[in-house]
Hints:
Layout lengths: L1 H7 L15 H6 L4 H24 L9 H23 L1 H7 L10 H11 L4 H31 L1 E2 L2 E2 L14 H18 L3 H5 L18 H5 L1
Antiparallel strand pairs: 1-2
Amino acid sequence: MNKLRTLTRGIIKENPVLVMVLGTCPALAVSTQAENAIGMGVATTFVLLGSNIVISLLRNVIPDKVRIPCYIVLIASFTALAEMAVEAYAYSLYQSLGIFLPLIAVNCIIFARAEMFASRHKTFDSILDALGSGAGFTFALLAIATVREIFGRGTWFGIELPWLAENNTGIFTLAPGGFIVFACLIAIVNKISKGRALKRTHFGCNGCPSAVACGKIPAKESES
């Protein structure tokens, strides 16, 4: 049950976007089309999975004082691999994602899972955590992109939909539409969980992956 909980909690209960409200910049920027959302979600999951595995394997080797720079190097390396793979095998997607593909390297979701989970748990558990968080991130992006593409363009995955193709609402493809859909989805998740998901989420310094680096809490306290 603990393994299953580790895998599934990132999808709904601790969804990175809709509950933890992390990674909102790429979530809103690339979610104008469902295809872009899937591409960004898969690329982020790859980086999340690779970094979680390596950080978990090296958790007893990396010195505590330099762990953040080490995490940055590892995450940036996997981001570069993901960027090269997308450019080589899905060039149209590479052009659509633009600058937000290399910016995966500074995605706070990946840093949060590295600091709060992978650096403290075994490799298999870290794999499950990465897959769950990646699936939750992809699900959130796809949900936002589906609503925005259907009502903003009258299409879904590029396929024209009857009536909506001629009667779309362009605001959904713009930033205001993204924020509207994002807010509505957060409200729906909060309603389904009856507020429990957001109440369980701690937004203080103890939940921040950079809290120790900025001196807000002592290193020993963060590990307790």
